[in-house]
Structure formats: C-alpha cells, structure tokens
Hints:
Layout: E1 8-10, E2 17-19, H1 28-37, E3 42-48, H2 53-71, E4 76-83, E5 91-95, H3 101-112, H4 127-138, E6 145-148, H5 166-175, E7 180-186, H6 213-216, H7 221-227, E8 233-236, E9 257-261, H8 267-276, E10 279-283, E11 287-296, E12 299-302, E13 306-309, E14 315-325, E15 340-347, E16 364-369, E17 375-377, E18 380-390, E19 394-401, E20 421-424, E21 427-431
Parallel strand pairs: 3-4, 6-7, 7-8, 13-21
Antiparallel strand pairs: 1-2, 4-5, 5-6, 9-10, 10-20, 11-12, 11-14, 14-18, 15-16, 15-19, 17-18, 19-20, 19-21
Helix pairs in contact: 1-2, 2-3, 4-5
Amino acid sequence: MHSEYSGSYDTSTNPPTFRKGADAVYPIVTNAIMAKHFGLTWAMCTDHGGPTHSKVNLEQAYPDLLLSRQLVPDVLQFWGMEFDAPALDHHTLMIPHHKDEAQQLYELESRFAKRDAFPADPGRDTEAKMIEFLKAAKDMRNKPLVIAHHASRSATGLGVYGQDTPREFRNGNNVAPDIYVGFEGAPGHQAGPLNGGARGGYGNYPTHGGFDQMTARVGGLWDALLGEGRRWWITATSDSHVHWTRGGSDFWPGEYSKTYVLARQDYADIMDGLRSGRIWVGTGDLITSLDLTASSRRRSAAMGETLTVSRSNRTDVDIEIRFRPLAGRNANGDHPEVRRVDLIVGQVTGPSADLDSDTNPTTEVVARFGPRDWRKQGHEYVIRHTLRNVETDLYARVRGTSTDEAEPLADELESPWHDLWFYSNPVFVQVR
C-alpha cells in the first residue's frame, strides 16, 4: 500500500526536493486504520522510489511507520517499498521486522533501486544489476523477500511480455530462491473499471478475472515455473494510492483483495509463511478460508509443502479442499456465492532448457466441482478427489469463482464485484 511518501521530486535542486502526496495521498496511519477496518491483521508500507528517495524513506517515512504501529497495534505493519527493480517493472521489497530494518531498506534502495541515483545512472537499469541486488539480499542476515508486481502490465498480448520476462524470473530465482519467490497473481488497482479504467491499470493486454495472465492462463507461465519444481508463489495486493471515490483506481487495503498466510500473528512467522508458500489469495471476500491437502498412507502435505510417495505402489493421492464462504456481506454490501471450484494438476518435469518457455502442456483442470459436489462440515464446505496411480512428480492447485466462466475471461469494464475469484498456491507430490 502507498502513502503520501509516494510523492514527486523537484530535480532543479541538488539534492532533489521531495514533495509529499503527489502520487498517493494518505498518511501511513490512515492506511493502517482502513486495513484494520477491512479485516487485515497485517499489511506492508511500500512507497514508490525516486531520486534520493532512500533518504526520504529513512528520515521521514519510517518515523511515521513507527508512530502508526503504536496507534494501530492490531495490524502488524511491515516496512518495505515498491522497489524500482533494475531492468524490470516494480517489485515488492519486503524487509523483516528487526531493530535495523530501516537501515536495511536504506542500504538496498540506495545501492540498487534504479531511480534512486541522482544524477540518473543508466548502469542501474540492467539485469546484471538485478542479479547483483538479489545476491546482496541473499547474503543478508535478515533476509528480505522480493515479489514481482503487476508482472504483465506492460505486455502487449497473451504471452507477448513487456518489462518482465520468463527468462528474468528464472535467472533471479536461480540466484536467490529463498528471496525471489513469486509474482502477484492479482495486481492492485482493481477499482479501475468503476471510473472507466482498466483493472490493474493493464491498458495494453487485460487481466483475466482480475488476475494477471501469467497466473490466470492454465498451463501458462506460472504452471511452467511450477512444472520445473520451483517454489514460486502468487500474492494479491491493494496497491492503494487514491480511493476510487476520490477519482482514483483503488480500493482500500483489504476492501477487495486479500492475501491470506497460514501463520501466527507474528512478523517472523508471517514472513516465513510467505517465503514457504502457505498462501492463498481472493477477491471480494468470496470465501474467508481455504485449505488444500494432499495425502497418502497417513502422510499429508498442505499448500507450499511436499508429499513424498512410493513409486512401487502405484499410489493414489487423496486431495481435500476445504473452504469457508462469507457469512455476512462484503465491502460492497453483497453476499457472494461460490459457483464452482476447479482442481488443477500439472507434472513436475525439472528445469526447462528454454529460459523463455511460458507453457506447461501437462497442466489441466482435472475436475470441476459445483455446489452439489461439496458437503457442509461445520462452517466449511469439503470437496474430496482422488488422483489415481500417481507415478510422476506433480503439483496440485485450486481456484474458485462466483462466475459461470469455464476459464476467466479477459476483463472489460464490468464491475470487479461481479467477477470474483480465489486461488490457492500449490501442494507438491514427489514420487520416490
């Protein structure tokens, strides 16, 4: 989420003069108050960079974050930024919570953010610089997280990528697999259509059901990365700048999109959950909990985990999906209902020789479930499905929707409240 510290710069002075409130307008504490109002228990302050912004973050924004933590203690507020990644579009740079967190962000932003140098330094905007940044992050005692933002916003077609490419994701993940762990499944700016704009600000090629094409296309880039065995996760953000009722394209933090992490209410455990893939994402509060489990012979694994089974026994793997529908009404005053849940399975075949590959032809929707296929158990609904005679490594993931669309359609100007989806991260099955 963005605050008034996503501002503008007068570069006629040296150093540049920073002006608050040009790009985003709300104080950090306002974002935290609204995050709490819409049910979030953690959030991250991620302002835009710019020339010498590292100093603005350190000297101006960070003290406001400390005050916000005192005023809104129910929301754990991480420190970070929407990093100007070398050679790429924006990325989340998430800093662990520790006494030197401000200095850690200052070091990374001042050394590596492509827009921080003044005068501008073209040498900052190269893939080699991005790799150098990831290596530096990996060597830090308190390891940050790096997650690509609105990865296909600059794409001009389906599979016609812009700033962010499959090759760059693979190269970065190879260098720092415990740092560079994923991309946004659902970008922010989802309220764009309410003011005549595009969801996510995707003005060239649209999102599908509010989700980036890299995630939404079955057998697409996300599946290609998972099919290599990469632990590559999806998240969802508000990317809040200016609320749509004030002419912006944003919802408040948590008003529409949420990232759920299986963790205690603890900074370190939340970050570990993000690093480990204990995550599912949803829009419009279509559901409020989701669990995906693979089990066999009294062993089980959940999202982000790996179930190991024996090759010799032609093993069946039982998949269990549990979700809890919204009991009341969402922020739009609606009571959305799940119309379908899809189980998606792909084979894990190892690293691809083609760094540009963005498909996994083995991935398919193996089962679709409607209301007649799930049974109520307490406040949850339960779906069970068996994968027979599993002989190859695979992963399974789940998505669900309030729509009748077999596959999420390219978004137009429909209300985002009428097009709701949730996605799990995968569980892996390893055959040995």
